[in-house]
Amino acid sequence: xxxxxxxxxxxxxxxxxxxxxxxxxxxxxxxxxxxxxxxxxxxxxxxxxxxxxxxxxxxxxxxxxxxxxxxxxxxxxxxxxxxxxxxxxxxxxxxxxxxxxxxxxxxxxxxxxxxxxxxxxxxxxxxxxxxxxxxxxxxxxxxxxxxxxxxxxxxxxxxxxxxxxxxxxxxxxxxxxxxxxxxxxxxxxxxxxxxxxxxxxxxxxxxxxxxxxxxxxxxxxxx
Length: 223
Hints:
The chain is α/β, with parallel strands linked by helices. It has a domain at about 75-215: 3-Layer(aba) Sandwich (Aspartate Aminotransferase, domain 2). It has 6 helices and 7 strands. Strands 2-1-3-4-7 form a 5-stranded parallel β-sheet, with helices on both faces. Strands 5-6 form a two-stranded antiparallel sheet. α6 links the parallel β3 (about 155-160) and β4. It is globular and about 55 Å long. The two termini are about 20 Å apart. About 30% of the residues are buried.
């Protein structure tokens, strides 16, 4: 176990007396300047130069062709799930969701924003057990689920606490069954995963990938 009490990097930081924070958001640079700039230039909106630039930068950082900035990771997960449903089953009627009548395999240990879009789109979530090594979706459990419900074509996989799931195995299983992946990388921006011998960023491992800049979600870890 690491000796945090004698680690020079933590000198001057006092421990909490009554609680242990999962992640405490901090500000380190010109955040206030850019908030003020958005107000001053009247770009408190869903468009503008700053949004265009962060979309460009994050796509380059993660290693994907393009990115779209939304109001929250929750909105990104809904959009990703809806688009996956349309790709699999076609555009829904106005009074129906894109997943109506279809099952979706989902991580069973995650924030509800990963799962709610399945209900929004009239699908049925089937929860896949967590495995011990990463606390993420178990490849063995996913394989068993496909044996029970072989017609399932969408899998929502979340990475918890900055630790990627076993994506090489999970992707192989999904590919074998012709299933798309919605990757919930909200808690793992900055984490890398070794896939086919190459280190890649989480947020680039699924067919549709979601990240988050929420202060509680920024972790860095490699697996």
